[in-house]
Amino acid sequence: MRVGLVCAHAGPSRHVDGPAVGTHQHIARVAAELAERGHEVRVYERLDEPGLPPTAEQNGYRVERVPVGPAAPTPTAELVPYVAEYGRWLADRWAGDWRPEVVHGHYWIGGLAAAHAVRATDIPVVQTFHSLGVEQLRHLGREYDGPGERIPLERALTRAVDVAVAQCNDEVDELTRMGLQRTSVAMVPTGVDTEAFHPDGEAAPRDQRPRILSVGGLTPGHGHEDLIRAMRLVGDAELVIAGGPPAEQLANHSEARRLRELAQRAGVADQVKLVGAVPHDQMATWYRSADVVACTPHYSSAGRVSLEAMACGVPVVGYAMGGIADAVVDEVTGRLVPPGDVRTLGVTLRRLLADNAGRFAYGHAAVDRVRCSYTWERTASALERLYERVIGRRGPAVGKTVEETVDEAVGEVTVEAEPKTVEAA
């Protein structure tokens, strides 16, 4: 198959933190796995730095950098006006010698560009949102900082694609509430690199106290404040928070200061340690240094941190929501607690830290679960079957029966699509 993967953000090497990093890690690994299976894969990302070559070959697939919008890192909200231009560039590109048999949009901006590009063709579109604005708004409330046009645009996009790929059961439910037929939603969880994340290997230095590790960006909504409050119930243990800007920038980071002030007020300042950004290829050493990994974000669709920790043989205590609830089997690979229940969170952490045999059993079961159900090979295989199905069922292009014209503030982005009847894998 010829597969086009579309993402409007630039590659992860030029980002320190944020959702675009995880999205691009996901896309790169899917592209490499599909290429290894013999498919022709091209990844499209926006050119955000002058002087970069327009194309690059890596891991068996081609990266094409699309010259639309500012040639600089740009917030997502400011990319919306360039969606139509991105789509036209793709359509012109695909009118040449290489034309994809299926297009897979990633994140809502990439999906809009992909849908715009194929609107006059019979090329099917598969879409992975990676996160949904309506879910983030529900879980984060006032802490939600997404652009106002995101939610209506995501609703329009669900009517412009053949299949939406959900990464957890909660996301399946959300997509159906947004109007998609259940047969147009496929559940394909993210994968874990089990060669990089495994129990054997070096561990980051630590002291004699039990260690709880929390991984996530230093922005409201990642749940670090819940863990800090819970530490009063945990006892003598340290909480290490990895994520955010580089360590040398933490002193001037507003959220880092807020968390440290909260720890001071809670009387656990000597138990809380912020280490800043950790390169992804070094994360396994930090997971292996922990007795427990705590996953308490207010929203998580993929549950990537919980899966990486489990692959390293570390039990997870997490909020029972999103991808975390799918990944962690309660009382088998870790413990699930009600989201936002700080008291139960603290008591659960204290009891698990005191239960050496329980942590050992959870860790072994966690490794088995990841290796059986969450490898990148399984993810790529599921996507491969899904692509084959949508290609086989998509008929010739016909006059469009659905037209979604979004707010003028979006930059007159128009998404057109025909009704979809594709059955998910």
From TrEMBL:
Glycosyltransferase subfamily 4-like N-terminal domain location: 22-195
Residue ranges annotated for the Glycosyl transferase family domain, each copy included: 206-357
Superkingdom: Bacteria
GO molecular function: glycosyltransferase activity
Signal sequence interval, chain numbering: none
Keywords: Glycosyltransferase, Transferase
Single Gene Ontology BP annotation: carbohydrate derivative biosynthetic process
Transmembrane feature ranges: none
Name of the protein this chain belongs to: Glycosyltransferase involved in cell wall bisynthesis
Organism: Micromonospora mirobrigensis
